[in-house]
Amino acid sequence: MITQTPKGTRDILPSESYKWQFLERQIADLCADFGYKEIRTPVFEHTELFQRGVGDTTDIVQKEMYTFLDKGNRSISLRPEGTAGVVRSYIENGMASLPQPVKLYYNISAYRYEKMQKGRYREFHQFGVEAFGSKGPSIDVEIISMIKLFFDRLGLKNIGLNINSIGCPVCRKQYNDKLKEYLRPSLGDLCGVCNDRFNKNPLRIIDCKEEKCRKVTVGAPSILENLCEECKNHFEGLKSGLDNLGIKYNVDKNIVRGLDYYTKSVFEFISDNVGAQGTICGGGRYDGLVESCGGNPTPGIGFGLGIERLLLEMESQGIVIPEQKEIEIYIAAIGEEADIYAQKLVFDLRSKGIAAEKDLMNKSLKAQMKYADKLGAKYSIVLGEDEIKNSKATLKNMKKSEQAEIALDSLYEEIINRR
Ligand code: ATP
Ligand code: MG
């Protein structure tokens, strides 16, 4: 037990972590280009925040949250997603008084008690952005274009973009009534969960993955044909904005997204390679969320992108992520005096930004050279009594079997000149 991670969690080992670091740098650069600043919120929050902010009727809140009482008898939950914490922070820190829109991003771990599958874990990671204060659709276009550019920069191909509008509280209420009328005669054919949804949130029946529910909903009235004037114009604006940037999309009237708080634009980026669930990224507009969490009415929009699923997708498309900076030089030493000299030399090189290594295991010279090879060091030198006395050594190119006599105090310049 104690030598195994809990189900659904994984270590990110050095053989993988350089990929995560690469993505973190890409994300930071992308967000800087689009003017989104990083926000870091706690891993746990009051359970009530998620009940309100993610929605009581969602699978996440009903089945997937890690909830516990802390020692002070407060109900606490590990964050199952990133938006609720950011909304809480926006309100708590009075960000409404900042120039709008407020554009934030996060790169976090999240926790859901789910059945393990490929691309589905209990601890997983999300890159997400949230933008507050703008009604769109210009910012909807900005956010979608940001994800598209992210995929392009990573070299990903064939990621489909599906968009839809699920209206505002006014037109959705009318639509829900129509939908219920359509579904009522077939209630017996729907799954138990959908029977529950029928009164609480009928729109989500459209999203059910159960075959028998899909059969019923296939001919259901579409929300897109029932939008009010304002929502219709907003959706037209989103589409023409995407056209203007040359971003291809599908209108899919069946995406409603799992979370209760969405309004108007919803979207997903999908791939076939990521396992049972192909959604790499999902997002949308949530104009009612800030208010329902206790702030002033504030429009908002965001997305969450699963890092594990992104890495799976990159792998299956054969995209190679560059490895960490390699060891440039290995300083082998024979004897105690040379070892002390090597310690100083290695430190001096490292101080100037050159990745250098020396022996730390009292290895023989032969074993030191073998290790240097294993490390993939580009250069090596061997220090013995003579080298130290004459302040000269042989700089060996490990990959090309070339070598040159150099002065030890010009070692740094010699390496730089050869770069
Ligand atoms: P799904 O339908 O696959 O369960 P979701 O609608 O629950 O996804 P969101 O809440 O929108 O997902 O989260 C955004 C993204 O986070 C998803 O598109 C996915 O890439 C990732 N994600 C969600 N749950 C998990 C998980 N358990 N393990 C790994 N990644 C996940
Ligand atoms: Mg889910």
Molecular structure report:
- The structure is a single chain.
- This protein has helices at residues 14-34, 47-55, 59-64, 83-92, 138-154, 169-183, 192-200, 211-217, 229-244, 289-292, 307-316, 336-351, 365-375, 385-390, 411-418, and strands spanning 37-38, 44-46, 67-69, 75-78, 102-111, 123-132, 160-165, 250-251, 263-270, 279-285, 300-306, 329-333, 356-358, 379-383, 392-397, 402-407.
- Helix 12 (336-351) links the parallel strand 12 (329-333) and strand 13.
- The mean pLDDT is 94.
- The chain is α+β, with helices and mostly antiparallel strands and 419 residues long.
- Strands 1-5-6-11-10-9-7-8 form an 8-stranded mixed sheet.
- It is 39% helix and 21% strand.
- The chain is elongated and about 95 Å long.
- The chain folds into 2 domains: 14-168 and 228-316, BirA Bifunctional Protein, domain 2 (2-Layer Sandwich); 329-418, Rossmann fold (3-Layer(aba) Sandwich).
- The structure holds adenosine-5'-triphosphate (ATP) and magnesium ion.
Poorly predicted ranges (pLDDT <50, ≥5 residues)? none
Q: Which hetero ligands occur in this complex?
A: adenosine-5'-triphosphate, magnesium ion
Strand order of the largest sheet: 1-5-6-11-10-9-7-8
**Biggest sheet layout:** 8 strands, mixed
Features of this protein?
5-stranded mixed sheet; 15 helices; BirA Bifunctional Protein, domain 2; 16 strands; binds adenosine-5'-triphosphate; binds magnesium ion; single chain
